[in-house]
Structures are given as structure tokens and as C-alpha cells.
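Hi C.,

You asked whether I'd gotten around to modeling the 259-residue construct. I have! Everything is below, sequence then structure, no commentary in between.
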Amino acid sequence: MDRNRRDREDAPREYLYGIHPVEEALAADSRQVERILVAREAEDNRLGRILKEARRLGIPITRLPREGLVRKAGRQAVHQGVVAVVSPVRYQDVDTIAQASMERNALLVLLSGVEDPRNLGAVLRSAAASGADGVILAGETAAGVTPGAVKTSAGAAERVPVGRARKPVRAIRDLKDAGFSVIGMDHRAELAWDQVDLTVPVVLVAGGEGRGLSRSVAMECDYRVALPLEAEVESLNLSVAVGILLYEVLRQRKDGVSR
């Protein structure tokens, strides 16, 4: 067998599923799309756009029974009749993301120890919608941008630069050195979410599910803020909390608020 062909066949690949994720993968050109798999029985008109774009890009198309897509994407995957065979996501260098952010909106999100791909996907969607410049996944057990995360993000994960950092504290210190103010999201904090200046270059930091910010990460934050909660509610889902803070950043910057 030809060595180049064998290398291609042995290369890691993922099965990205769902109409929006596949559309975004084709449009964003953020990773290689090797093949499009379509259910023979599929009738969704949106699949026509995907197939037209795949043909334009010269990407092979294979029609399979729905059971064939299930075997590729997994029993729990809502594939909507289409699966893309893709290379894994390319994580960007954190310093590169930070430098580019300073030249754009100066707004980043850092997730410390977030392990649920669905939470990650929801954060990526909010980050894309609000114009954040990137999301940094910190911690050795942090969730990666899996097909499930991409599906939850409705494909928005393909449009947001994502970086990885093994050590959250080191990443935060580097971002502070780059000129960012670091805002930790902590339901135990005394400051309210709207009592800090978010018009400056900002990194919003959220901790992992259930545990929240670790003590070492909390100590590195310039400020820690909390969202108001009724007494019966202990905390918000982290992706909801991140979304609220992202739009508070936009509100302050639009209104010219500073504190």
C-alpha cells in the first residue's frame, strides 16, 4: 500500500453530526472535511445546501441507510440525516488567541476544569453570539471540542478560536501579563456581576461543574463576581452564567459604563 495513502487512513478522524455543525464545518474551513455521509431516506431540504457545497469543494458524498449513520455517530447522536468525516479540531496557541483578541474585542472566556461537553458547547455558542474572541479550556481533565460539544453549540464551535492550557493558574497569569483583567464567576463572591468595569480587556473565568472555581484559580482573579439568586437556588448552570456575563460586557461597552 502507498505510504501516503496509509498515513491518510491511519490519521485520526471524528464523525461530526447534525445539519448546523456540518454546514459550519464546510463554511468555516477550520478543519479538513474528508467525506459527507447522508442518509438515503433523508428528505430535509437543508441537506441540499450541504450536498451542493460539498460538491463545490470536491468532497466525496456517500449515501447510507440511517443505521449506517447511527453506527458512525453513536446511538445517542441526533444526526438529522448527515454526518461529516472530519479531522479533529485544531486548538490554537493561547498566546496567539490573546494577541488577536487585543486587536479585536479584547474579550475571552477561560473554562477551568469544565468536563461536560454539552456545557462547553453551550458556552461556545454564547461566545460566538456575543463576539468573544476565543475560549480557553484549562485543566488536564477539561472537556475538548468533541462532536457532541459541536452539536450543542449548533455549529458555532467552528467559528470560535479555542485553545488548551494544562495549568489554569499559569494561563491566567499569562493573560494578566498580556493586559487582561481577569473576572472570576463565583456565586459566593460579594461583588455583583455589574459592579466591576468590563469595558477594559477582560477574561471571564468559570469553574467546573459542581465545584466552581478552585481556590488557586480564585486567588488569581482580579475580581470575583456573583449573579443574584433567590434563596432556594444554589447556583446557575455555568453556561447560562457565562452567557449573562458576556452580555453584561457588551452592555457596559455599548453604554460606555466604567466603574
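If it helps when you're writing up: Residues 1-10 have pLDDT under 50 and may be disordered.

Thanks,
B.
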